[in-house]
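Response to reviewer comment R2.3. The reviewers asked that we include at least one raw input/output pair. We reproduce the pair for DUF934 domain-containing protein here without editing.
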Amino acid sequence: MRLIAAGTPPEENLHVLALPNDADALAVPLEGVDRIELDFPKFTDGRAFTQARLLRQRRGFAGDIRATGDVGIDQLVQMHRVGFSSAVLKEGKDPADAERQFARYEAFYQGDAVETAPLFARG
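Raw output as returned:
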C-alpha cells in the first residue's frame, strides 16, 4: 500500500473520481477513471471499506483506490485487505509508524481482495 503524507500535492493528468460515502459503488461509471478516492469522514464511519471491496471484487477496478479523510494507522492493514492501494495519512501521522503495521502481520488465513486464495490453498 502506498502511503501519502497529508498535504502532498496531487498528481497531475489523472482522472480521479471522488466517490461520496452514500454512492452505490456498483452503479457508478468507471470508464477512464485512474483513481477512486473514498472518504472516511470520521473514524467510526466504515462505509468506504465496503465500497472498496465492491469496486475491487465485483467491479474489477484495477486502478488506484485511495483512502482519504480520517485515516488512522491502525486501519491500514484492513484497508489494504479490502482493496485500497493508497492512503493519505491524517495530519501528524508518521509514515514509518504506518509501515510497521504491515510488518506485524505476515499472512492471513482468509482470502481477501489482494490475495483471494485462503492460506491453505496457496502454493
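The longest strand covers residues 35-40. The radius of gyration is 14 Å. Further pairs are available on request from the corresponding author.
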